[in-house]
Design goal:
about 90 residues, rod-shaped, mainly alpha
Length: about 90
């Protein structure tokens, strides 16, 4: 039981948003269902916190990309191609 809950942060960071969200939903479901020991509940809670952080980071990254795209569009409202000259 413990091995499936306690995974290194690097492995969590490799998860996509949807994967992290789905696992977080499962963690919450298991916590709400009860029937786990205090140790298991704490491990699930910690995993949930880690997964929530991954989701926040992914959403923040998506928001930054969207903001950058909108800013680029505002700076070039006609959508013309600009050549980069050295």
């Amino acid at each position: 039981m413990t091995s499936e809950v306690e995974q290194p942060t690097a492995m969590s960071e490799a998860l996509g948003y949807e994967q992290a969200r789905d696992e977080l939903i499962e963690v919450v479901r298991r916590l709400e269902a009860g029937g786990t020991t205090l140790e298991e509940s704490l491990a699930l809670w910690e995993r949930g916190e880690e997964l929530a952080k991954v989701c926040r980071n992914r959403l923040d990254g998506a928001r930054a990309r969207l903001d950058a795209a909108l800013a680029e569009e505002e700076s070039d409202p006609e959508g013309t191609e600009r050549e980069d000259t050295p």
